[in-house]
Amino acid sequence: MNKLVPELSIPRNWIVDANGVLKTERIGFGSGDDKWVDEMIAAMEKARGPAADR
């Protein structure tokens, strides 16, 4: 576990693609503004890939 996650923090968000590859990791609450939601949605869309892959 320590090799994968050397420090535990809350919150920790991971976005993983369909192949199980870690694409994004976000630690902490950020600046507290609403941009977090839009940024995470964009990261999920990017990790999902093109529609032809689904």
> What is the strand content?
15-25%
Query: Count of helical segments?
Result: 1
Give the class from helix and strand content and strand pairing. Answer: alpha+beta
Helix content: 25-40%
Distance between the termini: 31 Å
SSE order, one letter for each helix or strand? EEH
Work out the number of β strands: 2
What about the largest sheet? 2 strands, antiparallel
Low-confidence stretches: none
Characteristic terms for this protein:
54 residues, alpha+beta, two-stranded antiparallel sheet, 1 helix, 2 strands, 26% helix, 20% strand, flat
Your description of this structure?
This protein is α+β, with helices and mostly antiparallel strands. The chain has one domain (12-49). Helices cover 26% and strands 20% of the residues. It has 1 helix and 2 strands. The chain has a two-stranded antiparallel ribbon with strand order 1-2. A hairpin with a 5-residue loop joins β1 (12-16) and β2 (22-27).
Element layout with pairings:
Layout (H helix, E strand, L loop, with lengths): L11 E5 L5 E6 L7 H14 L6
Antiparallel strand pairs: 1-2
Brief digest:
The protein is 26% helix and 20% strand. The chain has one helix at residues 35-48, and strands spanning 12-16, 22-27.
